[in-house]
Amino acid sequence: MISTPEIAATWREQLLARRNELRGGSFRDAAVARCALVAVADDATSAADRGTVAELVAADPVLRNFPVDDSRALFEDNCNRLANDPVLDCAHVLRQIAKAVHKPAEADAVVRTGIPIGGAAGACGPAATEAVRDACRTLRLAPERFGL
């Protein structure tokens, strides 16, 4: 997964510049679901790691367009679903991500928002990278566009 600080900083600036365009519920649902997908990608993800990602979701300046409690509840719901029934509920989480598929700017922002969050939480192993690829495919975006 892309991990260079320069690229992450550039993406962050671009997202912050477009923050007011990213106010729709479909963007929120997709971005939070994408973070959850990466947070539980590794079966060994601890509760502390999941909590770190939850804090990063709550603190993210783009996702702060939405009530923090709502974003956190969505994140926890998606994580719980993935932990309880990974196969069935992965489909649910991917449907949440797919809410942004018809809005290219939002789809791109979903991936770009989640990469710094996942990277900051240490979620950059092979399973997390594959989870981001799944999100890209769901959003009909080329994973290579994001360095995957």
Write the layout of secondary structure elements.
Blueprint: H1 5-17, H2 25-39, H3 47-59, H4 68-84, H5 86-98, H6 104-120, H7 126-138
Helix pairs in contact: 1-6, 2-3, 2-4, 2-5, 2-6, 2-7, 3-4, 4-5, 6-7
Defining traits:
148 residues, mainly alpha, globular
Report on this structure.
The chain is 68% helix and 0% strand. It is built from seven helices and no strands. The chain has helices at residues 5-17, 25-39, 47-59, 68-84, 86-98, 104-120, 126-138. Helix 3 (47-59) runs antiparallel to helix 4 (68-84). The radius of gyration is 13 Å and the shape is globular.
Bin the strand percentage. under 5%
Give me the secondary-structure category: mainly alpha
Rg measurement, Å = 13 Å
Taken in chain order, the helices and strands follow as HHHHHHH
Query: What's the β-strand tally?
Result: 0
Q: In percent, how helical is the residue content?
A: 55-70%
Outline the biggest β-sheet: none
Low-confidence stretches: none
User: How many independent structural domains?
Assistant: 1
Tally the helices.
7
What is the overall shape? globular
**Spatial separation of the terminal alpha carbons:** 5 Å
Mean pLDDT: 84
Sum this structure up briefly.
Helix content is 68%, strand content 0%.
